[in-house]
């Protein structure tokens, strides 16, 4: 590549160092940045990747020259015919994005706010049952609540009334982020030998379908054979969509918004034959499935980190409660809560949840700064180094939790939890609304306190996202009770 970087090993490249780091792969990239600078190269297997932490260069890639970098790097075991926003490219991505974007518009979010608050009321009921003198893992309840919100907002399924429906979805979503040995081995093969990806994908896909069929038709094998959670979830998502369309069921949820922009045509129809403002059935099911998975884990993890920060920063929590106490539940007032916004942004700066997903693939040869980028080159972002850069986030140390740093205008590519440019996270406003509503509901009623294990059990680990390894252990103090 003609760039500095860690010395690759035969066949493995730098994969071993990257994926066996004592913290996570993002920390490994940050260590390499300290050694080799803001632009360097490394190898995943024999695939070269350029890592960049210069925000000016990233602004060129993500915004100024977006037409040259409109694709993402394919995920391991990604099917070639997968048709959702994360995997699609070129005109197919533009068409899908333009159709789905209004689903997350302000008017839709106002409707979703009512649904979210009902789910959060159920969370408060669960928190009321906690003994104020006993530590507990709040992250488990936050995961449940995040899933409840997704099921309500995406499918109109109320877990409080349909526990027999919601529980399997929750368990399967948890399993998606806990790779089996079989899936782990195929993922490694896909990473190290991407030329044979069609083989790894086919093997994974058809064994998953067979396992699902056996699970449904040969019940006594269930104790020996578990279904692939991705296959199970996508199968049931497709069934929900079919039932809606078959019986003309209409609800106030995200699925309904997408169905209204969908033509009922054969799955084999190519994107070029679709009307400009419509999705086909595959695109509909794939995108609602993507939203369900992405919205569940990332938001629950963000709320877990926020709970940890609140428990360990009492002065900042008191200031946040003071701001929250001065407003009611009006949507317009909520989105204007300045310190609440800073607080969330600062937490996600310190603990970016899915940094690996912020990447691009060059679609057309171009010049970025002094660097010539060839077509097909993979670009990844060292988000950790950017978020902890003293030049971007000083004069207060970036290691310190200091929400007021967002009072100042920063470089547009200095904060990247949701990506940047035209291909940023489409659900960003939905996620931020959910997080803000959750914090408002919780902090109006409680003060989150640290306990004996809050710090000692805190550790990060990386699966699909970088999440707390041992949960978040806190105590709750009712605000109408003496401290």
Biggest sheet strand order reads 1-2-7-4
Helix fraction?
40-55%
How does CATH name the architecture? Answer: Orthogonal Bundle
The CATH class turns out to be Mainly Alpha
CATH topology: Cytochrome p450
Element order, helices and strands?
HHEEHHHEHHHHHHHHHHEEEEHHHEEEE
Low-confidence stretches: 264-269
Please give the alpha-carbon distance between the first and last residues: 60 Å
How many alpha or pi helices? 18
In the CATH hierarchy, what is the superfamily?
A: Cytochrome P450
SSE map:
Elements: H1 15-19, H2 25-36, E1 39-44, E2 47-52, H3 55-64, H4 90-100, H5 106-128, E3 136-137, H6 138-155, H7 163-176, H8 181-192, H9 197-217, H10 229-247, H11 254-259, H12 281-312, H13 314-325, H14 331-334, H15 338-350, E4 359-361, E5 366-368, E6 371-373, E7 378-381, H16 383-387, H17 390-393, H18 428-445, E8 446-450, E9 460-462, E10 466-468, E11 473-478
Parallel strand pairs: 2-7
Antiparallel strand pairs: 1-2, 3-11, 4-7, 5-6, 8-11, 9-10
Coiled coil: 310-337
Cofactor: heme
InterPro entries: Cyt_P450, Cyt_P450_CS, Cyt_P450_E_grp-I, Cyt_P450_sf, Cytochrome_P450_3A
What does this structure look like?
With 483 residues, the chain is α+β, with helices and mostly antiparallel strands. It has a single domain (53-180, 226-478), classed as Cytochrome P450 (Cytochrome p450, Orthogonal Bundle), CATH 1.10.630. Helices cover 49% and strands 9% of the residues. A 4-stranded mixed beta sheet has the order 1-2-7-4. It has a 3-stranded antiparallel beta sheet with strand order 3-11-8. Strand 9 and strand 10 (466-468) form a beta hairpin. The longest helix is centred in the middle third of the chain and has 32 residues, at 281-312. It is globular, with a radius of gyration of 23 Å. The termini are far apart. Mean pLDDT is 88; it is low at 264-269.
């Amino acid at each position: 590549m003609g760039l500095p970087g860690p010395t690759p090993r035969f066949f493995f490249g730098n994969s071993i160092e990257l994926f066996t780091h004592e913290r996570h792969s993002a920390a490994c990239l940050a260590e390499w940045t300290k050694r080799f600078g803001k632009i360097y190269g490394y190898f995943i297997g024999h695939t070269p990747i350029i890592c960049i932490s210069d925000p000016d260069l990233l602004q060129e890639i993500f915004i100024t020259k977006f037409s040259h970098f409109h694709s993402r790097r394919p995920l391991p075991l990604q099917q070639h015919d997968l048709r959702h926003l994360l995997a699609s490219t070129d005109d197919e991505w533009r068409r899908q994005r333009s159709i789905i974007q209004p689903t997350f518009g302000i008017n839709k979010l106002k409707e979703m706010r009512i649904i979210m608050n009902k789910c959060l009321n159920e969370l408060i009921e669960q928190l009321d049952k906690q003994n104020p003198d006993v530590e507990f893992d709040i992250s488990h309840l936050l995961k449940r609540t995040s899933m409840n919100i997704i099921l309500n907002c995406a499918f109109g399924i109320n877990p409080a009334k349909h526990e027999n429906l919601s529980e399997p979805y929750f368990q399967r979503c948890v399993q998606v982020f806990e790779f089996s040995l079989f899936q782990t081995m195929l993922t490694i093969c896909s990473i190290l030998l991407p030329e044979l990806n069609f083989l790894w994908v086919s093997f994974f896909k058809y064994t998953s379908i067979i396992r699902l069929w056996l699970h449904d038709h040969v019940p006594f094998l269930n104790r020996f054979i578990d279904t692939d959670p991705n296959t199970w979830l996508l199968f049931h998502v497709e069934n929900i969509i079919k039932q809606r369309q078959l019986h003309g069921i209409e609800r106030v949820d995200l699925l309904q918004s997408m169905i209204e922009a969908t033509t009922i045509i054969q799955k084999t129809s190519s994107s070029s034959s679709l009307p400009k403002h419509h999705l086909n059935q595959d695109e509909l099911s794939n995108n609602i499935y993507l939203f369900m998975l992405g919205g569940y884990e990332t938001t629950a993890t963000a709320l877990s980190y926020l709970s940890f920060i609140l428990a360990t920063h009492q002065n900042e929590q008191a200031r946040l409660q003071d701001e929250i106490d001065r407003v009611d539940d009006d949507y317009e007032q909520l989105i204007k809560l300045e310190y609440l916004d800073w607080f969330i942004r600062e937490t996600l700066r310190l603990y970016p949840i899915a940094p690996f997903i912020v990447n691009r693939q060059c679609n057309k040869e171009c010049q970025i700064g002094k660097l010539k980028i060839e077509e097909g080159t993979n670009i990844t972002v060292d988000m950790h180094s950017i978020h902890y850069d003293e030049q971007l986030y000083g004069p207060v140390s970036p290691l310190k939790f200091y929400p007021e740093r967002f009072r100042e205008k920063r470089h547009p590519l200095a904060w990247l939890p949701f990506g940047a440019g035209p291909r940023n996270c489409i659900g960003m406003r939905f996620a931020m609304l959910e997080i803000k509503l959750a914090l408002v509901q919780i902090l109006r009623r409680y003060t989150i306190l640290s306990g004996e294990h809050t710090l000692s059990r805190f550790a990060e680990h990386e699966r699909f996202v970088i999440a707390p390894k041992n949960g978040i252990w806190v105590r709750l103090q009712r605000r109408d009770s003496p401290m």
